Amino acid sequence: MLHGFNILRQQYSNLAKPGGGNQSAINTIQTLADRLIKADEYQLSLEDRRAAVLALKGLSRDHNRAVGQHALPALLKSLQRDAKDEDTARALIECSITLCEVHSPEAAATAQASGQTQAQAQNRRKQQNQGPPSGLQHTDVFLQEPGPLHCLLPLLAPHRAFYTRFASLQLLGSLLRNRPHRVQDHVLVAPGGCGAILECLAEGAGSSAEIVRNEALLLLPHLVYANADIQKLVAFEGAFEKLLDVCAAQGRIEGGIIVQDALEGLEALLRYNVSNQNYFRETLSIPMLAPLLFYPPGSPNNELPSKHADHEYARQLEAFCFQDWDQQKVVNAKIVLDIAALLIAGQAEGRRANQAALLQCGMTKCLIDLALGSTAPASLKAQALHLLASLMQSSRANQDLLSSLLVQPVKVLLPPKAETPIEGQHGGEQQQQQLGQNPTFASQEPSFTRLQPRPAAVCLVETAIGTSGAKGGLGLRGAAIACFRSYVADNMEARLSIINGMLPEAAAEEDNATASAASPAGKILFEGITQNPSTTATSDHADAYIHLISTMLFSYLLRGSETAKSAARSIAIDLDGKAVKHVRAEKQGDNDDDDDDDDDDDDDDAPSSLIQVLVANLTLSERELADAVRKERASALGSTVSSHSYSAADWTRIMVGYLVLLSIWLHESPLSVRDFLSESATLQAVIQPVAQSSGVDPLIQGLAAFLLGVAYEFDTDPGKVAVTRATMHPILHSRIGADQFAVRIARIPDDVRFRQVTPDILEKLIFVEEQTEADELRAKQQAEAKAAAAQALAAAAATAASASPSSPSSASPSHPSTGDGAKSEEKVKTDEEAADKDLEVNGLGHLSKRRRAGLWFDWSFVEFWRLNSTLISRSITVDPASSSAREAAMPVELLDAQRQAEALRDTVAKQTREIEMLEKRRDQLSCTNTEQLEQLQIQLTKAQEELASSTPQLEALREEIEELKSAHAASLAAEQSRNHDLVQLLEEARKSEEECRGKVLQLTSEIARSSAGKPTQKELLALQKTNEELKRKYDQLLTSTTSSAASGGVGLKELLEARDLAESRARQISDLEAKLAGNLAETTASQSTEEKRELQRRVHELEAQASAAKAERDRVSADQSTQLSAAKREKEVLETKLSELEKKLEECMFSKNPSRSHSSLSEGQQGRELEQANREKEEISRENEDLLVLLEELTQKRKSDKARLRAKGEPVSDDDDDEQTSDHAD
C-alpha cells in the first residue's frame, strides 16, 4: 500500500517540475480520478485514496477546470465513501472549495497584488476566457444529486474535527452564494440538515468553537433568505434563543461584528415570514429587544416597588441616555430597530398583538427616550421615531403613552465658535453639516445638558420644528413629522388637546373640559404658524423649515375633521399677536348674527381670525419671493447684492406650506371658506400669482389655483360674506379662465418637487443624517490623523535633530488621497453652482438643484391631491347655483337636459355676441360714412372756390388759342408758298433733265459718226462699271425717296439728292462724251485737239454748274448743314472719279498703238460694246425721268399730309423747308 502511495507522489513530483515528466496534466488527472472511481476494483487502501485526493487537490489550484471536468465525480464519490476519515474528508472538502470558488475581478486583483505567480495568473485568465466561470459549472455538478450535500451536513457535528467543520461551513457558503435555491432544496430534504447547522451556534469553549460559530453566523442569513420553509425549520430548531444568547454573551449591541452577524440572522428569519413573527412573540423573545439597547427594565404598571429601585432605574436610564456611540454600535442598534419594525409591518391581528407586546415590554418607552431624550446619533434617533410612528399607528395605547409620558430632552452645547451661525445659511441641518466638514470643530467632542422634564408631545413638536436644541438635521425632523402624523391620525383627543393648547390659560379656564385637554404643544405650534416670516428671516437662527413644518403639523390636526377645523376657527389673534377666543365662527343662521359679524368686520380693532393671519403671511411671502428672485438673478448676472433674508427657494417653500394648509383647511368646510372670503383682498392676493403668465414658480401657481378651486367648490354657506360663490365665478373666468385654471393645476404632477414624493419620502431623509454623520466621522479621523502626525513629528524632532526628510511624508500617507477627494467634491459642487447660476440667469431658477433639494411635501398631501385634483380642476366650470357633488349625483336624463340647456345658452350667447358685433359694426360704418360725407363736402367747397378763381385764366387761355390759330393760318399760307416754289424747282430740274437728254442724243449721233474709231475693251469695261455705279446710286435714291414718302417728312433733302444725282449723271455723260472724243481722236489726229478743247470747255461748263449748285446749297439754313456736308462729300467723290476718268482718257490718247491691225480686228466687238453703252444710256435716261415723276409725287404727298395734320389741329413744322426748297429750286 505504501508502495502505491509513493508512486503517486513521485508522479506528481515529476509533473510539478518545469518540463519534467512525459505525461500531461490531463493524463495525470484522469489516472487519479480513475483510481478513485475504481478503488474497490483496484483494492486501494484508504491511504492510497487519500494520496490521490491530495494530488488532485494540489492540481486543482493550477488546473481548476481540468480537475473539475475529469475528477469531480470521482471526488464526490470518494466524499460519500470516505467522509468518516477526518484527513480524507478535509482534503475532499478543501478541494471542492477550490473547485466551486467563483473569483471576482476584485479578488483576482487582490491575489495578484498579494504575490501570486505569473503562471498562476495566466492560467486563471485562460480559465476565465474559456466561457462561464468554472466555479458555477462545478457547483452544478456538485448539486446535481442531493447525496454529496447530505454527506456534507453530518460533518458539522460537534464531535468532528475543527478543520472539517470549518471547511464544511465554508463549502456550504460557496454553494449558497453560487446556487442558493438548489442548496435550500437539498437542505430541506436532508435529515437533520438545519439542526446540524444550528449546532454550530452552540456555546463552546476555546477559540475554535468561536470560529465555527462565527462562520455559522455568516452562513445562516444566506441559508434562510427568501425561503419560508427553511425559516420555519430553523426557527423551530431554536434559532431565536441561540441567536439572542450569542448577542447577550457578546455584550449586546456593544458586541461588535459578531452581534451584527447574529442580529442579521435573526432579521433574516423574521423578514417576510408572519409565522416566525408570531412564533417570536410566543417564545417571549420580544422583551429581549429593549435590553439589547441597554434600556433598563421597568415594572409593568410603571410603579417601582421601592425608592431604591426608583433611584436605580433613574441611574440606569441616565446611563442609557448618555451612553457612548461608536459606528459599530450604531449599526447594531439599527438592526435591533429593524427587527422591531418587522414585527409591526403587518396590518391585522398579528400587528396589533406585536404592538401590545412591544408596549408591555417597554419598547415604546425605550424608543421615546432614545429619540427625544438621549445623546444617540441623529440617524439612530430618526429611525427610532419612524419605528415609534409605526407603533402608534392605529394603537391608542401607544398614543396615550406618548401623551402622558414626561421626557427630559438633551440639548447639545456646541463649541463657542460654533454657536455663531454661519452667514447665508438657514436651517439647523446646514449648520451641522458645516460643523461636520470643519475639522477644528469635528475634533471637539460636543457637550450635552439635560433640560427640565416636559411632555413627550412637546418634545416631539419641538424636534419637528427644530427648536428642541437636539443635534440633528432634516432627517430627524422628517422622522418627527412622521411620528406626529401617526400620533394624531385617528386621535381626536390629541388633536383637540393641541388646538386648545394654542389659547391662553385664561380663555381655557372658562371651559373645564377644554382646560383639562389643553396641551402645551399647541403654543409651540401656534407660534410656528403665525409668526411673521420676514421677522424670522433676519434673525440669527433663521430657518425656513420652521414655517413649512409648522403648517404641515397643523394640517395633520385639521385633515378630515370639521370639529378640529371649528376649534381652529375659534382662535383669533389680537393686535398684540396673542391668541384670543373668537366665537364668530359659531354664529350662523339668523340675520342678527350676520349683522354682528358685519359689525365685527367693520371694526378695525377686532382680532383677526387664524385664516386671515395665514393669508396675510402668504401675501407677505409672495412679495418677499419676488424680491429674492430679482436679487438672485442680479447676483447671477454679476451684480453685487447684499441680502440678509431667505433665499428664493426658502420663500417658495414657505408659500407652499401656507397654500397646502389653507387647501386642507377649506376642503369640505363651508364655514372655513366663509371665513376665508370674508375679505375681498384675500381673493385678489391668491388670484394674482395664478393670473401672471411668467415670472412665477409653476408650483406656486398650481397650488394657488387649487386653493381657489377648493374655495369655490365648498363655498356653499348662505352667510353674508364679502365674496360669494356667484361673485367669484365671473372673477375666476375673467382673470384666469377655465382652461388656464385647469392647466395650472395639471402642471403640478409634472414638477420634480412633487413627482419625487413617495410613500417613504420621510424615511429617505435619514440619508441626510447618515451623510452628515459620515462627514463628521471623516473630519474627526482627519483631525486625529493630523494630530498623530504632529505628535510623531514632534517626537522625531525631540529624539533626533537630524531626522530623515522622508519621515514627515510617511507620517501622514493618507493626506494626498484625502486632498484629492476634497478637490473632487469641490469640483462637483462648483459645477452644480454654475449650472444653478445659468438657470437663475435664464429665469428658470425653480429648476435648479439647489432650489429643488430638501423637503417640500409629504405623502399624505400627495394622496389628498390625487383624490381631489380632478374635481377641483373642473369646479369653476360648474354653475354657481350648483356644485360638483350635486352634479355627480344627478341622473343621466337630468344631466342630458342640463347639457342641452347649456348648448342653447351657448347658442344664445353666441348670437348675442354676433348682434353686438353687428351693431358695433353698424355704428362704425355710420361714423365712417359721416366722416366721408364731411370730407367730400369740404372737397366740393374747395373745388368751387378753385373754379371761381380759374375763370380769368380760362379767358386768357382762349385768347391765346385764338392767337395760335391765326399764327397757324399764317404759317400754313407760308408753307403753301414754299410748296409752290418747290414745284417750280422741280420744273427747272425737269428742264435740266431734258437738256441732258438732248446732250445724250447729240453724243449718240456723234458716236455714230465716229464709228470708224471704236473704244478699247478696257474702256468699255470701265464704262460698264461706271454705269453699274450710277444704277446703284439711282436705286439708293429711289429707296430713300420711298421712305421719305412713307414717313411724311421734310422733302428738301430728297430734292437736293435728286439734283446732285442729276449733276453726277450729267458729269458721267460728259465723261462718256470725253471718252468717245478720245476714241475719235485715235482715228483722226487732226480733229483730236479741237475735240479735246471742246471736251475741256464742257468740263468747265459742268464745273461752273457745279459751282452754282454749290452756291445754292450754301444758302440752305444752318439746321440742314449736316445733310449738305454729306452731299458735298458725295460731290467730292464724283469729282475724284471725274479726274480719274480724265487720267484714263489721257492714257488712252498717249498709249496709241501704231499698227491699226488690232483696231480693225476688234472693230466688230467694239461696235457691239458701243451699242450696249448706248442702250445703258437710254435706260439711265428713262430711270431719270421716273425719278422726276417720283419726286413730283412725293411733293404732292407731303403737301397733303401737312394739310391733313393742320386740319386735325396737330402741330406741324414751320415752312422753312418749303422756303429752302423753293430757294434751292430758284
Automatic annotation (TrEMBL):
Residues 822-836, 1166-1185, 1198-1211 have a biased composition (Basic and acidic residues). Residues 591-606 have a biased composition (Acidic residues). One of its GO terms (cellular component) is endoplasmic reticulum. It comes from Ustilago bromivora. Residues 110-140, 418-447, 583-606, 801-836, 1103-1131, 1148-1186, 1198-1226 are annotated as: Disordered. Residues 1122-1223 form the Uso1/p115-like vesicle tethering protein C-terminal domain. This is Related to transport protein USO1. Residues 438-447, 1152-1165 have a biased composition (Polar residues). It holds the Pfam family Uso1_p115_C.
